[in-house]
């Protein structure tokens, strides 16, 4: 499925040194997911370097919209 990044998500990724492949890894294989307000989903996982990554996104029929990362 196509992944689209909001301007806010791109800004936060740049600020925090998070890459698109890292975000995709967490979305594809999260340790846990939690439903949020407005149909959003929080995916939580651990990267290969041991750092935790949380991704807030919304899924539509045709794409995944990344709202923010931290």
What do you see in this structure?
With 70 residues, this protein is an alpha+beta fold. The chain has one domain (2-69): YaeB-like fold, CATH 3.30.2310.20. It has two helices and five strands. Strand 3 (41-46) and strand 4 form a beta hairpin. The two termini are 22 Å apart.
Shape: globular
User: Which residues form runs of ≥5 with pLDDT under 50?
Assistant: none
Individual helix count: 2
Q: How big is the Rg? A: 11 Å
How far from one another are the termini?
A: 22 Å
Please name the CATH topology: YaeB-like fold
Taking the sheet with the most strands, its summary is: 5 strands, mixed
Key descriptive features of the protein:
70 residues, alpha+beta, YaeB-like fold, five-stranded mixed β-sheet, 41% strand, globular
């Amino acid at each position: 499925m196509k992944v689209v990044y909001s301007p806010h998500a791109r800004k936060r990724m740049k600020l925090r040194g998070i890459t698109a492949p890292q975000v995709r890894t967490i979305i594809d294989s999260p340790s846990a997911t939690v439903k949020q307000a407005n149909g959003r989903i929080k995916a939580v996982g651990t990267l290969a370097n041991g750092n935790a990554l949380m991704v807030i996104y919304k899924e539509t029929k045709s794409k995944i919209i990344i709202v923010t990362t931290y």
